[in-house]
Amino acid sequence: MTCSKEPSKALLTDLYQLTMNAAYFDNQKADEVATFEMFIRSLPQDWGYFVAAGIDEAIDYICQLQFNDEDVSYLQELNLFKPEYLDYLKHFKFEGDITAIREGTPFTVKTPIIRVTAKRPQAQFVETILLNIVNFQTMIASKASRIVNAAGNAKVIDFGLRRAQGRDAGIKGARATYIAGVIATSNVEAARIYRIPPSGTMAHSFVMGFKNEIDAFRAYANTFPDNAVFVIDTYDTLEGARKAAKVTQEMERDGHRLVGVRLDSGDMENLSEQVRSILDDEGLGYVKIVLSSDLNEYKIDKYTKDNTPVDYYGVGTEMITAKPVSALSGVYKLVEDNLGPRIKLSENKRTYPGRKQVYRVEDKDGGYLYDVLELEGEYHEGSPLLEQVVRGGKKIRETVPLNEVRDYCLDCVARLPIEVKMVRVIKHYQLKIGTELLKLTEELTAQYSGHGA
Fold first, then answer.
1. Which DSSP category does 452 fall into?
2. Do 27 and 132 reside in the same domain of the chain?
3. From CA 157, how far away is CA 183, in angstroms rounded?
4. Residue 336's pLDDT is what?
5. pTM (2 decimals)?
6. Residues 132, 11: Cα–Cα separation, whole Å
7. Given 320, 345, 368, which residue is the final one in a domain?
8. For residue 149, which phi and psi values (nearest 5 degrees)?
């Protein structure tokens, strides 16, 4: 199996990856084997778990990594690197092994989600792009999972493109939200690339473009007789609902049905109830209600608990940016090399040494109880989460279709303890530390404390 080919992205990295590798090369360390693991240090406030996303993209990047002539020419212009090292980069590629958890897997802090073992320069170099891809997409998928949980039986649609921090964030973010359970996206490019169902309604400007609100509804229904959703709060929400009901009855006479109405302002809980009554009184119980406008999991959770009659939520800014969380604390740390298991003892940034495996322990009904982190090769009950995906620089795990990733994610999240899925979380999903890992950690801590490595 080969990775899809794209233009070189080798320079999408931090300069220190190149300078460290140049020093490894100069000091005869380029053939040493090293192992690094990626994990996230802490959960944002009220979050009980993460949802892994971006794993497959990161792996594709790593296994197609190479420097082209333009890359090397630019580095030469910097007058920073020796000719011998630049020559070395011309043949640089990833030839190591990677283990990773599955895309869509829920996990918690300090859980290794990707492990890279390769010659030291190769294992070191992939740090920046791996963190760039996985931190962002995991953040958006995790935020989306919280919103989907809060919505209960209602469905969530991604409306985030216009507020995303650039094109790439809008597209990759839409994919991440879909993995977490969002049913559709307004982002047509993301829909095309990933085969996510596209969804959209109309803007207030469309309604304002006609002399009368009802004329706007009729015009839109004429063009989209079986796919129309009217935005009804441009002027007066309840009057808009009555006009939408009138047009819907006209559509019925021609054998068509209105899909729904959208509310985007005001006291939406109260208005939703009144709009539902207007539609139901006219025999239009099938017409769905869509809410949008600065929604987040806290607002949606309240609507759900109050039994607000909502069928769909269009969520934009706060989901595509994960507001108020600006970034995840994902890191990539050396855990083993030719000197043996390695440990970092920096205050508040300590790491667990050695190659590790994560085991998920379930109850008799298949619900997730907790995970256990243990040294690789040490037996523990439960199912291992890390599996080999790259061997000798070649992918050995097929990329799973996005719909299957989504189904897997939703199944996994459903198995999590209810306490970790609440909007105001009671507890975080638990990671226990295995006996052998604790023992090794204590030994290395005693060895290096006060002395340095």
1. -
2. yes
3. 6
4. 97
5. 0.95
6. 13
7. 320
8. -60, -45
